[in-house]
Amino acid sequence: MTDALASSGLVVVDKPAGMTSHDVVARLRRIFSTRRVGHAGTLDPMATGVLVVGIERGTKFLAHLVATTKSYDATIRLGAATTTDDAEGEVLSEVGAASISNDDALAGMAALTGDIMQRPASVSAIKIDGKRAHERVRAGEDIEIPARPVTVSRFEALAYRRPDHYLDIDVTVDCSSGTYIRSLARDLGESLGVGGHLTALRRTAVGPFLLADALTLDELEATPRLSLSLDEALARSYPVLHVTDEEAAALAMGKWLEPRGLDGTHAAVAPDGRSVALIREKGKRLATVFVARPSTM
Fold first, then answer.
1. Is residue 104 flagged as an active site residue?
2. What is the pLDDT of residues 19-65, one digit of tens each?
3. What's the CATH code of the domain at 217?
4. What's the CA gap between 47 and 169, in Å, rounded?
5. Which residues form the active site (predicted)?
6. pTM of the prediction?
């Protein structure tokens, strides 16, 4: 029997520098010959690496794709602050970083590790009164976004270089969703009194989706294919609950099952290995949160 969802799932793209996330979506619409393409979480044009994209019914799953953690490799330049907190902005100030030792930088990084309050960059995609911050900045508005809590579980230096009067540090970061790496660069520079900004950024993981899953746009152009089917995406993103054929049929119709003491959302997987739905206990019901395989398909 033909699977109606054979073309639905996720593509993990290794985004090249210089493209917006929307550019990637537009390219994939052409590659997969469908308008039903969407991305989960914007990646700056300067950045490369993991961009999770939904194809066909995979776009419906994106709303339930809760990536609580992300990982990055980046290069921070100490000795200059910019308007955008990265290399694409105009230089605001330059203070030689020759006096900043590697240990000074490590101490500054340690202070930015753990549960911290972080002020997002003014050119971020955060909406303020319905309009994105970067759009307000480009319109000439002077804005400052309030600090908010984030978690930086890992902020480590991999290498140091000292070109001219700067200190460049290659770092690796594991953090909660919503953390801005360019803000870490800015705050590290400010704490050391020399200013700082990001010169390179590569996202290496979004939740359970890794660079190992990623395909380049050239690879996809040559051979259009999913990184993960919708079945694989649900099972990787959530704990699996195996259900019977009868239970799977009920969930496909949006019906609820008897509760069984589950904590949080699970992927209900039928005996044939197909992920039927995301389910969660609500009171005395084990109810569907998202039906991946509705009975009408």
1. no
2. 999 999 999 999 999 999 999 888 889 999 999 999 999 999 999 98
3. 3.30.2350.10
4. 17
5. 44
6. 0.89
